[in-house]
């Protein structure tokens, strides 16, 4: 994921993410979005994640990776998204669980 997710790029990211999902041919069970290098995210980033979640096939789940001390992690916490989507400290943890 990019360094910043906001009103300037969130709308363009959705088709890119969904193309990657479609490329799996309906076999996608887990989608990990690595936000560990995302240093800024506003409400459009939260909207993007929720839009992706709604478009996945039933049973498929989203997992997020975010640095615990980072702004992105704080945004996930403040908005409540962290309650609904598992957030991991690193990619290895997200893939292993």
Walkthrough of the structure:
- The chain is α/β, with parallel strands linked by helices.
- Helices cover 47% and strands 16% of the residues.
- The protein is built from 5 helices and 5 strands; from the N terminus they run E-H-E-E-H-E-H-H-E-H.
- The strands form 2 sheets. The chain has a 3-stranded parallel beta sheet. Strands 1-3 form a two-stranded parallel sheet.
- Helix 1 runs parallel beside helix 2.
- The longest helix is centred in the first third of the chain and has 14 residues.
- The two termini are 20 Å apart.
- The mean pLDDT is 92.
Number of strands: 5
Question: What integer is the average pLDDT?
Answer: 92
Based on secondary structure, the structural category is alpha/beta
Taking all Cα atoms into account, the compactness measure Rg is: 13 Å
What is the number of helical segments per DSSP (H or I, 4+ residues)? 5
Main sheet attributes: strand count, strand direction, barrel closure: 3 strands, parallel
Shape: globular
Strand order of the largest sheet: 2-4-5
Report helical residue fraction: 40-55%
Q: Give the CA-CA distance, first to last residue.
A: 20 Å
Report the sheet-strand fraction. 15-25%
Low-confidence stretches: none
What is the string of SSEs from the N terminus onward?
A: EHEEHEHHEH
Write the layout of secondary structure elements.
Elements: E1 4-5, H1 10-23, E2 30-34, E3 40-41, H2 43-55, E4 61-65, H3 71-79, H4 81-84, E5 87-88, H5 91-96
Parallel strand pairs: 1-3, 2-4, 4-5
Quick overview of this protein structure:
The chain is α/β, with parallel strands linked by helices.
């Amino acid at each position: 994921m990019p360094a910043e997710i906001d009103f300037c790029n969130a709308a363009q990211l959705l088709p890119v993410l969904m193309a990657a999902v479609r490329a799996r041919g309906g076999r996608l069970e887990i989608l990990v979005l690595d936000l560990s290098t995302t240093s800024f995210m506003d409400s459009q980033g939260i909207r993007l994640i929720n839009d992706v979640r709604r478009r996945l096939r039933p049973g498929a789940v989203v997992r997020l990776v975010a640095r615990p001390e980072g702004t992105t992690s704080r945004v996930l916490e403040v908005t409540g998204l962290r309650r609904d989507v598992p957030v991991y400290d690193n990619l290895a943890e997200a893939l292993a669980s």
